[in-house]
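Standup notes
- DV: blocked on the single-chain target, sequence here:
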Amino acid sequence: MRLSGRRRAGRAGPRDILSAKGTSLNVLAHSLAFWLALIAGLFAIYMLPTVIGVIRRIEHLGIIIGLNFIPPLWPAALLGAFMLPRRDPPKAWPPPVAYPPWRGWPDV
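- DV (later): unblocked, structure below
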């Protein structure tokens, strides 16, 4: 396909991106795969404070999620995901002590 002279409207294919000379950025901007990858990447970066908070198991994860939904407060959510203290693991009961059998008891 030649792009010299006349431009065509529509979606760009892989051949258009690889074969176009000098207009590859324009063809890339019309590619559906490019836009889907860009939106997915930006969404992953936007959700980064929540993911960090879940991995670190912070105490007030709800605050980070709430701040994450307000776009101007995203840097505060990212900072809070690193600065909030981690949750303590739940207290486990001590294991029961297994006493050895008493010598006077018969084995049953």
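- Follow-up: Residues 12-39 form one domain.
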